[in-house]
Amino acid sequence: MSAVLHPGGHAHDGHGHDDHHDHHAPHGWRRWVFATNHKDIGTLYLLFAFAMLMIGGILALLIRLELFQPGLQYVNPELFNSFTTMHGLIMVFGAIMPAFVGFANWMLPLQIGASDMAFARMNNFSFWLMIPAAIMLVASFFMPGGAPAAGWTLYAPLTLQMGPSMDAGIFAMHILGASSIMGSINIIVTILNMRAPGMTLMKMPMFAWTWLITAYLLIAVMPVLAGAITMTLTDRHFGTTFFNPAGGGDPILYQHVFWFFGHPEVYIMILPAFGIVSQIVPAFARKKLFGYASMVYATASIAILSFIVWAHHMYTTGMPLTGQLFFMYATMLISVPTGVKIFNWVATMWKGSMTFETPMLWAVGFIFVFTMGGFTGLILSMAPIDQQLHDTYYVVAHFHYVLVAGSLFAMFAGVYYWGPKWTGVMYSETRGKIHFWASMFFFNLTFFPMHFLGLAGMPRRYADYPLQFTDFNMVASIAGLGFGLCQVYFFLFVVVPMMRGQGEKAPQKPWEAAEGLEWEVPSPAPFHTFENPPKLDATATRVIG
Q1: Is 150 domain-assigned?
Q2: Which one of the listed residues 184, 190, 338, 348 is annotated catalytic?
Q3: Residue 10 among the catalytic residues
Q4: What is the CA radius of gyration of the chain?
């Protein structure tokens, strides 16, 4: 975002020193279209993700509008299912994942002392691939038969009966998957090969660790998704019967393949969030992160265990009892390393001299609300309970607590924490706190009642519901609108002023106790950083000389 501030790419660090090597920065539209600088590409990713967040949010509000009261008000059930399907796909693949890649692009080279990402042109390509994919997803509403309405999981046999928009959706998912794989290769090579001398793996910032592990996860599971949707495509057009029982196929097979991708995917969307929170909590508690090594091992354990829990999404498919037991115990096991992380964050704060600037508010809010989402996940891991709650609003409440209060809240924390480094100006602390408290209030008011709706038996993806669920649905719909408006407020009154350079000038290190190489460069970060690898001190968090 410093790019918007300084079209010439010049950066002053407030010490009368001008970065003389910035005159190579390209100007105008070419700077963005042909961007190879990791900061510019990071900015593009973040702005793209925010645009998709708004589109996905509008779909969510249309869903809540229909559910404001019982009966069919505005849309027919088919269009309602298109809304739920496209809301899920756009939020997961268009908002959450690209936003974390934006953070990775911006911060990883700064954190490890690299001059840029390893493959700069591939970095550009992996961003621009997402634009046609996003257009195809959104345009599917205007195709014959309307957008896919099979749920974001794209289960057979519904997908085999959808109109041509389904093929556009499959193509879009392939392109987004290719983009993710290229981004992951770039991140892995950058972290493994381009760290500053003296920065061993076990001295890396937690954010770099979580992204390294996430990138391996992405490379492992994106081809699995590609396989699932390619089989869907050949079933639709080339006479195969992978998922068609009439030809010896099995629709349950699709669920196994999809969730073998889908469960590690859930951790792909939360591990970078853990990394961001692990950077912020020590900075504002003014203490070292408690149990750094155990954090690294816990992250790796989550990644490994995520491959053996996929069928907990499938307890109601008629799985044998031994299968249910296996997935039940494996799922309970994966909560242990997650608990280790939460314990370590709390232990870091314990007896720290804490202050609650906006990044810390979001981080503490994340820990609190994400833990609630984790507990409902533990409840759903138990097969007998899940069979009652499967496909009810309890599940909707659970995964929004994990993905909105998890991934999204951590990203807000990251924007407030690193934003001054990106733009060179401080955000308005008052506006940041308004954004936090209003979001926290409306988020809980939207999704907490859904636990009760689910326990009472209200199924998800239905455009109508019995009269007794009206009050909670009204509350959720109104609060959902409030939550959406909070994010518009965030963009207009926090992000835009920072991008325009309005606000007090950010010092090189706005947070006194923050550690890491990113605080060793001026604010805003100059166009080219670390052209010569920095010499590090023993902790690998400071530059010597």
Answers
A1: yes
A2: 338
A3: no
A4: 23
